[in-house]
Amino acid sequence: xxxxxxxxxxxxxxxxxxxxxxxxxxxxxxxxxxxxxxxxxxxxxxxxxxxxxxxxxxxxxxxxxxxxxxxxxxxxxxxxxxxxxxxxxxxxxxxxxxxxxxxxxxxxxxxxxxxxxxxxxxxxxxxxxxxxxxxxxxxxxxxxxxxxxxxxxxxxxxxxxxxxxxxxxxxxxxxxxxxxxxxxxxxxxxxxxxxxxxxxxxxxxxxxxxxxxxxxxxxxxxxxxxxxxxxxxxxxxxxxxxxxxxxxxxxxxxxxxxxxxxxxxxxxxxxxxxxxxxxxxxxxxxxxxxxxxxxxxxxxxxxxxxxxxxxxxxxxxxxxxxxxxxxxxxxxxxxxxxxxxxxxxxxxxxxxxxxxxxxxxxxxxxxxxxxxxxxxxxxxxxxxxx
Length: 386
What we know:
GO molecular function: cadmium ion transmembrane transporter activity; ferrous iron transmembrane transporter activity; zinc efflux antiporter activity
Number of helices: 11
Order of helices and strands: EHHHHHHHHHEEHEH
CATH topology of the largest domain: Alpha-lytic protease prodomain-like
CATH class of the largest domain: Mainly Alpha
Helix content: 55-70%
Largest sheet: 4 strands, mixed
Low-confidence stretches: 1-11, 13-59, 61-81
Distance between the termini: 39 Å
Domain Cation efflux protein transmembrane: 94-286
Transmembrane segments: 93-119, 125-143, 163-183, 195-213
Pfam family, one: Cation_efflux
CATH superfamily of the largest domain: Cation efflux protein transmembrane domain
Strand content: 5-15%
Number of strands: 4
Number of domains: 2
Strand order of the largest sheet: 1-4-3-2
Shape: elongated
Region (Disordered): 1-58
């Protein structure tokens, strides 16, 4: 007997790999439209036991141990990291880069004590400040692990965006400081002493910052953290500053005292370019921008699900370094509620395997329109016209 549905078959909102979630439950609680919410909680449901036939998994020893000792979630070949492991990788990147930059700053400070180089002093302070930008980002990663609450229903993942904004402001301050120092040195030239030691320390600063920049950017892109990528770009600007000290020392060795401030101004321009890239990355994330290719990929995956006649509005948004999806699908108008719900679950399943770093999807099923039936969505028209 066909099921009559005035508006919707199912709203399927799982919470895959989100820390602190309540166990998987199909209790009697109902949502606002009388439907039973179907939640894939963090109790290890994660489709454990269905085997994921046809989904290849890494044969590595570490992966096998993790697979045996932890609940199985949607880790397809394209899914780079579960949400918790991504946070752990981000924290590890912060600790490693903090150690490298701290060591770099200490090395430069030792040379400053011997040479009295004001330029190198500014560079060492700059590197120390860059190391400390790991603090707000680390706090954001820790907050992102906290469970959602009645007030913060999406959790605290967006704290990463706030940390990214702090990093962008720090890069802007770096550009302003570098420009100010360069102009001051141009107006008031000062001799640079102990040039070999200054050059070596500047080279150490450049190598250390560039290594940290590459490491942060790589990990940030792999786990989907725009803030960590921005922090890597910040380290790159500090590497440019160290390079300016090195080039300035070379110019001073050739008797060209103006080389230091001129190079400083050139480095300021380079920092502004890096600032543009970092700001674009962070602001896009704050405005819920995603790669259009991900949207195309998600649509293709859902269209391939048996029972899906059409894919309606599809939205993706980042919450920290995790993706969430909301979409509507059109199914057979004579399908029962259970049949429509099963299609919604399969659509969600396909999304979780097709879209990297996707941890939750809300799938809304609409019946195919009928010529002799009034569209129930018309009741919402006056709300949408505002």
